[in-house]
Each structure stands twice: as C-alpha cells, then as structure tokens.
Write a structure and sequence with these properties.
The chain is an alpha/beta fold. It is built from 13 helices and 15 strands. It has two domains: 56-340, TIM Barrel, CATH 3.20.20; 355-439, Golgi alpha-mannosidase II (Immunoglobulin-like, Sandwich), CATH 2.60.40. The strands form three sheets. It has an eight-stranded parallel sheet with strand order 5-4-3-2-1-8-7-6, with helices on both faces. The radius of gyration is 24 Å and the shape is globular. The structure holds alpha-D-glucopyranose.
Length: 446
C-alpha cells in the first residue's frame, strides 16, 4: 500500500517532466552516478514511496566506530601509518565496548532531533561488528564477544529511529581485498565474501531502512557485481534505500564534507564530520560550533537535501564529550525550530547577508545568523506576506512590505533564540525572491 499523497506524486511527475523539458537525455553509462533520467515512471514511483520518510526526516546521525577507535588516530590509521594487517588485527583484543553503549548513541540522536542512524558495520579495516559465517575477524568471535550490530539495531528501534548500515566494500584485512583487481580467482573469492556479508546484514536484523555502501576501490561496477548486489538487497529488504557508492546510482547521492545539491529530481545527503575525522581522533580539536551545524542543516533543507552528521565514539562506545555538548545544543535549537526543517520543501530564496531560508508550503522561514537588533530586512521578496512570528516562541513580529522587500520591526534588541533566530512568515503563495529586482529597478520607478 502506497502512502504517497497527490502532492508527492505531482512532485515525482514534475521532476521527470522538468528533465524531459530540457531535451537533455543522459545516456546510460555516461553518468553512472546520476543516471535517473531514463528510468520508468514505475521505478521513480517506487523510489518515492521508499524515500518518503527519509525526505521528511532531513537529519541523521552517522557513527564511525571500529578497531581504529582503540588507537584514536583517525579511521585511516592502518593505511596512514602503514600498520601491517597482522599487527592491526591484534587491536581486536582491546576492543571491549561497555554495556548499553548503543542506547547512549540512540538517545543522543533522538535528543538532537535526528531521525535515523547509520553505523559502520564494517569499515575499511575489515573488522565486522556483526556475526558472520565468513571470518573470525568479527566482534562476536573476538574480545567484544557480542553482536554489536544487533545491539545497535535494537537501540535505534527503542528510540523510534530508522536504522542504517554503512558497509565498506574496500577491505584492507581480506587477503584478496587488493589483488582481486587483477586475479580472477581472488576476485571471485572476495566478491563472494562481500556479497555474503551484505546478505547476512540484510537477513539477520529485521527491517533495515538504509544501506550505505562506501569505497569501491579497487573494482568497477562489473567487478563488484553491483547489479546483482542491489537486486539481492531489494529482494531481501523491499523498502530499503541504498546510496550510490557501489558504483550504481542507487537512490541518493552522497556529497562528502560539502553541501551540494544533486541535479533536479535526484535525492542527496551531505555527510559531514563534527571535527576533521570520522573515526575517533584523540588530538583532533577542530570542532564545529553548534551554529555551524545548524547553518549547514538549514542549507541542506533549503536545497531539499539531508544532513548526516557524524560521531566517532571511543573503543568502549562512549561518545566524545565535545560531540555530546555540540549535539545537545543543536537538539535544543531543533526542539524549538524543527518545523522549519522536518518535511520542508525546496526553497528558492537564497539571498541575505544576515541569514538564510527554508520553506514549507507557503511558509517561509528566515533564519537570522547575524542578528542585528530591533529591525532586520531582506530584499526581493516577490510574494505578499500575511503574518510573521518568532518560530521559537510564537510571538507575533511586525513588518512592512513594499515592492522591494520586507522589513521586520519591533524585535528584541538581543537575539531571542540561539544560535540562530528564526522568523516564520506566512505568505500568500509559494514565496520567491528576485535577486536582481532591486538593482534593475530604480527605487520608486516601478
Ligand atoms: C571517506 C573515508 C571514510 C569515511 C567516508 C564517509 O570515504 O575514506 O573513512 O568512512 O568517507 O563518507
């Protein structure tokens, strides 16, 4: 049973029509990361059905956690410090997570306003957090002695969060992980190994919402048998969504450490670290501020994307205190201003030196990053505003609007919300902004 609304359907058909109207057809294979133009309406419709919750959710928690967390020098430490695999695997003896670690992650995600989680079930190091028939290099058969993926899944569900699995195709531990590139026997063994993991992950943990592939080095789409891989995944999990990092377009694009919308009609999610490392890095102190995080989230929402924000827990599963502090402040803001983010639509407005915008239907949200005091304005609003209020308190905001723009007045001298004050503006129709309207028209001459 599809729960897509008429509005959702029109959106899907609209996106297809927009592509058709350009007259540009993307030939299959030329742009494998973004090839959606030649898909049938049925395929598009099924994708929209599977992705509806995700589009509304907007904000998720990424978790990078592995044996590298024992060393605390970034998740690429094995490669960056040239640690031989036989040495590196000994870290498994020290990897003993505390009880209920995942409950703390899930509680923090919920408190932060994140609606889903994506955990590294296996990173490039090759250590599996799940029980697998393929290797002893997995948490249940090492010092941890437990299936950590199971604990994670249960914790996320207990907090009502959607569950995502990150899975690295690249594997530095498996003996065939590199030589598969030019040895067919090695490729056969390695690809069977990887496909078995994916089958186990898709079979043993109930309903999974997201499969987040990563790094496809050293094989290509044919070498990985990616078509077969996705077919198996959708056969086992018909409602799942998958990303584009097994070299197929999948359901969404994954800009990393930058906010960049995909082309029209294509879903995207920016993934980002909170400092400069995905995995725990003891010395990395380049923490983002809560304000930077909120701004990033708003920018993603404005351009109809999602924001997947990372934590890198310690080996015992505990979350770095800096991450808890930043996430908590973001969560406080979300508890007052979530209406401007969840379920928001693409917003055409971009221009202000004080803030940024998001939109839901005919409500425009003006997010003031640099709060100037009792009055603030922006130019080029082409839609009539009916009323305005502070989103955090509901307090009415006075304004005057003319052909050139809108000015809010009588605001408190000191910013009423932190780190960003949001004004919700009810408009007569879907709001738009003309960025050159003011310069093109001599004031008063229109
Ligand atoms: C890069 C890094 C990897 C990280 C990923 C997250 O691919 O190699 O460590 O997991 O980004 O998107």
């Amino acid at each position: 049973m599809s729960d897509l609304s008429r509005r959702d359907c029109l959106k899907i058909i609209g996106a297809g029509a927009a592509v058709a109207a350009t007259g540009i057809s993307i030939v299959s294979g030329q742009n494998p990361q973004n090839n959606t133009a030649d898909e049938s309406a049925e395929v598009k419709f099924d994708r929209a059905r599977r992705m509806k919750w995700w589009h509304e959710a907007k904000f998720g928690m990424f978790i990078h956690w592995g044996l590298y967390s024992v060393l605390g020098r970034h998740e690429w430490v094995q490669e960056m410090e040239a640690i031989p695999a036989q040495e590196y695997e000994k870290l498994a003896a020290q990897f003993k997570p505390k009880p209920n670690f995942a409950r703390d992650w899930a509680r923090l995600a919920k408190r932060t306003g994140q609606k889903y989680m994506v955990m590294t079930t296996k990173h490039h190091e090759g250590f599996c957090h799940f029980n697998t028939s393929t290797t002893n290099f997995c948490a249940p058969k090492q010092a941890a002695g437990r299936d950590l993926v199971k604990e994670y899944v249960e914790a996320a569900r207990a907090e009502g969060l959607r569950v995502g699995f990150y899975y690295s195709l690249m594997d530095w531990h498996h003996p065939d992980g590199a030589r598969c590139a030019d040895d067919e026997g090695a490729r056969r063994r390695f690809v069977d190994y990887i496909h078995t993991h994916i089958r186990e992950l898709m079979t043993n943990y109930g309903k999974i919402d997201i499969l987040w592939y990563d790094v496809s080095w050293p094989l290509d789409v044919k070498g990985w048998e990616s078509e077969k891989m996705n077919k198996m995944v959708f056969g086992l999990q018909p409602d799942i969504i998958v990303n584009n990092r097994n070299k197929l377009p999948g359901d969404f694009s994954t800009p990393e450490q930058r906010i960049e919308a995909a082309e029209a009609g294509r879903a995207w999610e920016t993934c980002m670290t909170l400092n400069d490392s995905w995995g725990f890095h003891r010395a990395d102190d380049a923490w983002k501020t809560p304000k930077q995080v909120v701004r990033n989230l708003i920018t993603c929402a404005r351009d109809e994307g999602n924001y997947l924000l990372n934590i890198g827990p310690l080996a015992d599963g505990s979350i770095p205190p800096e991450s808890i502090e930043i996430f908590t402040k973001v969560g406080d803001w979300m508890s007052r201003n979530g209406d401007a983010i969840y379920g928001s639509d693409k917003c055409q407005l971009t221009r202000s030196r004080n803030g940024s915008f998001s939109r839901k239907g005919t409500t425009l949200y003006f997010h003031i990053h640099y709060y100037p005091g009792s009055s603030v304005a922006f130019a080029g609003l082409m839609t009539k505003a009916r009323s305005a209020r502070l989103l955090a308190t509901g307090q009415k905001v006075d304004f005057t609007q003319d052909t050139y723009g809108i000015r809010f007045t009588g605001l408190p001298e000191k910013a009423p919300d932190s780190p960003i004050t949001t004004i919700a503006i009810e408009c007569e129709s879907v709001p738009t902004q003309d960025n050159i309207f003011v310069r093109k028209r001599e004031r008063g001459q229109v």
